[in-house]
Amino acid sequence: MPRLGQACGTRAQRRCGLRQDSMGGRTFPIRHKAPTKGIFEQGSGFSPLNLQPMLRDRDHIQGPPVQFRFPDQTLRVNMPDQPGLMAEIKARLRDGDGFSLATLNLDHMVKLRASPAYRAAYAAQDLVVADGNPIVWLSRLAGRPVSLVPGSDLLRPVLHLAAAEGMPVAFFGSSPEVLDRAAARLTQEIANLTVVWTGAPSMGFDPTGPEAEAAVAAMQAAGARLCIVSLSAPRQETFAAFGRTRAQAIGFCCFGAGLDFVAGQQHRAPEWMRRLALEWLWRALSSPRRLIPRYAACAAILPALIRDAWHLRRA
I want to staple 241 with a disulfide (CB 3.0 to 4.6 A). Which of 14, 124, 177, 209 is the partner? Predict the structure, then answer.
């Protein structure tokens, strides 16, 4: 018997760029090699500069959001805590409205300062939470406190909500093996969770190009109402903003390595380190060559962010 995700579709499906899962009849796109392009090239006509976040008036959204100002954008953490976020997601799923969700951290802030295109994609996110203690500490300094809402901690609550509401789910990103393992574990763990489509992008994936277009069309055709995006920044936020314009009933959740954690491909810091805000240290020690320069860049922008937060408090 073919394993979960093994290609066994009809010849006609293969001509259309699809493969069919032998367990459950799900269809998946065949992964074709795509030419490498810059991640913000607008070959498909998509421009994040034309996007506007669509946050409806909800009773649970109260008070001025903490914000970060750039020369061309002002980005806001508009979901101050997990209960408010879950209420907003539930309302959107029930109303048939999609969304894109970003989880802001200090590494994103470094990339946002360097890239106008990334700022435009981030400004197009409907929902933004604080995924990182430095963002939480800056919000308190600014007098507009928000709670810590890590994307990895949101994965299961969001999937439980989707299962309870009867909303089919898609996984996009990482690798085929990770997606298969994550789908198998999560559907076994969460009652009534339905994963109708998974797709892993090719090397050099362009989040606004033809491969992205095909992925969004495939998950939409499969009936997905929620998509867990498991890519690195800035590709995942750019893909979510792009997908939002193509499939307006799908909610795109940018959860980074969340599916890798579920599949056992990567490992999170122990709970006690997370409680002490030391998850960054765990990660740095696990991959020092890659992450120590990243954290050094994060530390370098902190003085300016602290100054801006103080000015916001006094405004």
Answer: 124
